[in-house]
Design a protein that fits this description.
Length: 296
């Protein structure tokens, strides 16, 4: 395993459910293997796309173990270990370490709008487990903004090795490079791949490779290598889909895209509801456009 398992295209995996909404661990393991065969570099089980918030403790642990067992050599597993507080997040990081994961992805405390002291203590506590910690900045859902200055401090204190940047502000890639040159910045929003790659991002924790892995890997590789001749046509074709990654209905949209491309996306657990007819139609149109252009 590489010493930087968070780099490259690391897929925030959707989680398949059976008709009774029980977790389909066999289907999930097959999906992990397929992503590896399709050129992706790793997976993030138990991220938001994996609906970790509606899994019980056994299910959540089983998903991590299934991902590790299915991952071939050289393919990274970086579980999400988000929790309301540091004690639970540390416990999930310990479970990930015991299962054989290579790093963890960690949101700030998300039960309330934590202040800077609480955020610093939260990451320091989970870092004690010994696995590399990738911070996840999602100020929309957590109401806690990991500003470039705060991320740089977390890195300087040894609590994190990278940050998944989901603020939607590509300027932060440049700020982070100035404040913490040794920190890896990872693309967190699928519809800012090219912009963040130009700013120096080294990885992409991605949603839409669940359905179109080969096209997304080509896009990322071209973008980070500066091959705009290849990247821009791909980006323009995929962007109507990639924009759904930053919308409230992103899980449903990505699962529908999986269904339409021959994978098993399927239903979500409550409280997520099926897409409204208008949104369903918009996703279908975008998928048809991508498939007609040869995206796979």
């Amino acid at each position: 395993m590489a010493t930087t398992p968070w780099r490259g295209v690391v897929v925030a995996t959707a989680l398949p459910f059976r008709d009774d909404l029980s977790v389909d661990l066999d289907g999930y393991a097959e999906h992990v293997r397929w992503l590896a065969q399709s050129g992706c570099d790793g997976v993030v089980p138990n991220g938001s796309l994996g609906e970790y918030q509606v899994l019980d403790e056994r299910e959540r642990a089983d998903v991590v173990r299934a991902a590790v067992a299915a991952a071939p050599d050289g393919f990274s597993v970086v579980p999400g270990v988000a929790a309301y507080g540091a004690r639970d997040a540390r416990r999930w990081a310990e479970q990930a370490a015991e299962a054989g994961a290579h790093a963890v992805l960690l949101l700030p405390p998300n039960a309330y709008r934590a202040d800077e002291r609480a955020v610093l203590a939260h990451y320091a506590e989970v870092a004690k487990v010994g696995l590399p910690v990738v911070a996840y900045n999602n100020p929309y859902d957590t109401r806690v903004d990991l500003t470039p200055e705060l991320v740089a401090r977390l890195h300087a204190e040894g609590s994190i090795v990278a940050v998944k940047e989901f603020s939607g502000d590509a300027r932060r890639g440049y700020q982070l490079a100035e404040l913490a040159p040794d920190l890896d910045v990872l693309i967190g929003t699928d519809d800012l791949v090219v912009e963040m790659a130009l700013a120096g991002a080294t990885g992409w924790i991605a949603g839409f490779p669940n359905a179109l892995p080969e096209a997304c890997v080509r896009l990322f590789r071209a973008a980070v290598s500066g091959d705009q001749h290849t990247a821009l046509p791909l980006y323009r074709t995929l962007h109507p889909l990639l924009r759904w990654d930053a919308k409230t209905e992103f899980v449903q949209a990505i699962k529908l895209t999986m269904d339409l491309t021959g994978r098993h996306g399927g239903a979500c657990r409550p409280p997520r509801m099926p897409l409204l007819p208008q949104h369903d139609g918009e996703v279908r149109t975008a998928v048809e456009h991508a498939l007609a252009a040869g995206m796979r």
